[in-house]
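INFO  loader      accepted 1 record
INFO  loader      residues=416
INFO  predictor   begin
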Amino acid sequence: MAVVLAYTSPAIGHLFPFCALLTELASRGHRVHVRTLNSGVDLCRQSGFTAECVDPRIESLQSQDWTTGSALRVASKSVEMLAGRAAFEVADLDRAIRSVNPDVVLVDGNCWGAISAAETKQIPWLVFSPFVPYLESPGSPPFGPGAPPRSGMAGKIRDSGIRAVTAAIFDRPLRAGINPIRAALGLAPVRSADELMRRAPAVLVATGKPFEYAHTEWGESVHMIGPAIFEPPSQEPPSWLADIDLPVVLVTTSSLRQRDTSLLRTALRVLDDEPVHVVAANPAGAGDIDPSGYRHATLAGFVPLSAVLDRTVCVVTHGGLGITQKALSRGIPVCAVPFGRDQFEVARRVEVAQAGTRLPARRLTVRRLRQKFLSALTMTAGAEAVAAGFAATGGVRHGADVVERQLGMPTRPHRT
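INFO  predictor   done
INFO  writer      dumping tokens
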């Protein structure tokens, strides 16, 4: 069996999908080593992996995008952070490879320096994107603002305008940050994140159709594996869950700090008039929300989502890919209120798939959220279609097959 090294971005929302894939690889007898955020090391070890934290200088570089309400500034700050981390990732991945001596390396799509370093090694390697990927596809608008697909000349003109903006905000600073690093490694420059990711022999993406647009075509090297869903093995359902008699609406905010506490406050006001119990998950812990003034509400930090989703009829969320896909994979419709990062893209896909509704955060009001929530409740059929599409990808079994093919191992028949 093989030795697998997984190098992840220091974010719990990235580590969890990695853990889902790595658990499948470990079940096949492969030995798994992980480099991740400091607080995720114990989780990895509990899951049976060998784990160490990334260079602390990498984790210390955290996005300050929560300080701005501008979508363009959010994107700019994210690129600045990722490029800053890239400078430390090259040596950090080198140290990990010398320590582990892996047969194959899995690199997070947000680790631009590690991707470039992996390209120089004589070791099989792949990129894993646990988020909506920076990949271009004919007929799709550029990544970033969450614009809907539009065909014909009008669509081409609109997309050209969007591309001019995203090139200035995203691609130009990406080149400025990563190409000097690539030059020092003796590698050719790249023009975009799409081109950087496609340097990998294979790319795994945690998504599937019809959540992805029907026309999406990323090429033979890109493999959709559906949601990579994972929950810590030690988590137990909270005791208060058994006391809830009403249908549950789960309201979530990001596990990384951003200005999304307003979503919890607004949703609590909206749902207080509905025959539901609100479970409000606020993992980043920002804000001072008191649910005691509402008839049926429970405020929590991290919660074991599977146990809550077993009781849930709709999810109101910031549009994080993880919770959105966890809901849709169960056929639960979503009301997405995106604030930044890839959330605009996630929310648009929910809307286009008719698996829920989308309400930009800048338009968030009690009246509008109530309308979007009630509309989302009627979209179970679309959510169930997405669930079926996710299942059809083959999931992490398919992802593990792709990893093994990079090692020259034969593809295994899928278990049912």
